Amino acid sequence: MFKYKNQRVGVFVDVANMYHSAKNLYKTNVNFAKVLEVAIAKRQIIRAIAYVVKSDTKEEKHFFDVIAKQGFEINSKDLQIFSGGMKKADWDVGLTVDAIKMADKLDVVVLVSGDGDYIPLVSYLKNNKGCLVEVMAFGETTSSKLIEEADEFTNLSKNKKKFLINK
């Protein structure tokens, strides 16, 4: 797919999805600065938003600060803990609403997540808003239907040196 310098790009990162994929697959963290650089691809960045869930740990605050310094706006919400001990923490609806609200100002939406719950969003942005939709995630943990629906898929696992932080 051709990428043009004047394309307006919005980057939407499901941080929990990416964080847990990298931890489970490779026992390390995602290099979000490199992800953003490749997502923008020398095009015109309009917004880059990282969606995070807070559970109030020191490491987490540092992690969020690092992401913010790398060029992301941080949208955060608190981890929900229910009376039975079940925990819930996802941004699917919030990220989806933001992407749809911004779609008229964007030519390209870059979704950084492998979550198949975003398939209707990708389909809507392409078919109703005329946006190109690029997905970036780890191939092993990405919905095959999400990959199919996207205009372009970047498998972060194919370049681990670039997209993961070596410890």
Describe the structure.
The chain is globular, with a radius of gyration of 15 Å. The chain has helices spanning 15-26, 32-40, 58-69, 92-102, 119-129, 144-149, 160-163, and strands at 8-14, 29-30, 44-54, 73-78, 80-81, 87-88, 108-112, 132-137, 152-155, 164-165. It is α/β, with parallel strands linked by helices. The termini are far apart. The chain has a single domain, classed as 5'-nuclease (Rossmann fold, 3-Layer(aba) Sandwich). It has a six-stranded parallel sheet, sandwiched between helices. A two-stranded antiparallel ribbon has the order 2-10.
Features:
167 residues; 10 strands; two-stranded antiparallel sheet; alpha/beta; 7 helices; globular; 6-stranded parallel beta sheet; Rossmann fold
Q: How is this fold's topology laid out?
A:
Elements: E1 8-14, H1 15-26, E2 29-30, H2 32-40, E3 44-54, H3 58-69, E4 73-78, E5 80-81, E6 87-88, H4 92-102, E7 108-112, H5 119-129, E8 132-137, H6 144-149, E9 152-155, H7 160-163, E10 164-165
Parallel strand pairs: 1-3, 1-7, 3-4, 7-8, 8-9
Antiparallel strand pairs: 2-10, 5-6
